[in-house]
Design brief:
The complex is a heterodimer. By secondary structure, chain A is mainly alpha-helical. Chain A contains three helices and no strands. Chain A has one domain. Chain A starts with a helix and ends with a helix. By secondary structure, chain B is mainly alpha-helical. Chain B has one domain. Chain B contains four helices and no strands. The chains are: A mainly alpha, B mainly alpha. At the A-B interface, α1, α2 and α3 of A face α1, α2 and α3 of B.
């Protein structure tokens, strides 16, 4: 039952993943793409938490923690890049 | 659902709410009209949705170690608003167009004063 619900939620999250990817591909400005990347990583954190529930392996929660940390570093680097870029 | 225990039902409800929040955030990312509005949708609803899903996974209890989950939620709550602020500031300095604002009260001198030397 629990695993079934988790797989269903992951299928729902695929829609969110697709919408964020659409924005990343179509975003008119670089800021749009960076925001979409931020969102994609948040969805990936949620995916790994749901995978931990669905498979019963607690290691996937560590993956979520690391993804959350990497997300911040990536966002800060993108922001610095956007700020220093000639417009 | 009587055979499931209250904590399990609670965790499943939390995870469903988190997924719905993430879906709403993604829809906002597509439908809103300028990068700052999209940032608002992605950081607020995205943080809440992810934190709810991890809380739900912790409430289910079969995946042990609540420290990892709490640490992840703490890092999310600290870093995602920070990242959003950094990104918004950088996007403003890069002259990203804003929907519905024709004359920007902050003049170019102000903007070049904000820019790092």
């Amino acid at each position: 039952m629990i695993g079934w619900v988790a797989w269903t939620l992951m299928a729902l999250l695929c829609v969110a993943l697709g919408l964020a990817a659409w924005r990343m591909l179509h975003g008119p400005t670089p800021a749009d793409r960076f925001v979409a990347f931020d969102m994609l990583t948040a969805v990936a954190v949620a995916f790994s938490a749901l995978t931990a529930v669905a498979t019963g392996r607690s290691g996937f929660l560590d993956v979520a923690l690391v993804l959350a940390l990497v997300n911040f570093v990536a966002t800060a680097a993108f922001a610095l890049f956007l700020e220093r870029r000639r417009s | 659902m009587n055979d499931l225990g209250i904590a399990t039902v609670f965790g499943l409800v939390l995870m469903t709410c988190g997924t719905l929040f993430l879906l709403v955030a993604a829809i906002g990312l597509v439908r809103l009209r300028d990068p700052f509005q999209r940032m608002h949708s992605a950081t607020k609803a995205g943080t809440l949705g992810t934190a709810l899903i991890i809380l739900g996974a912790m409430a289910l209890g079969e995946v042990a170690r609540p420290q990892t989950g709490l640490l992840t939620i703490l890092f999310l709550l600290v870093t995602l608003p920070l990242g959003g602020q950094l990104l918004g500031r950088a996007a403003y300095l890069a002259r990203t167009p804003m929907e519905g604002i024709d004359d920007d009260p902050l003049a170019d001198e102000e903007r070049s004063g904000l820019r790092r030397k």
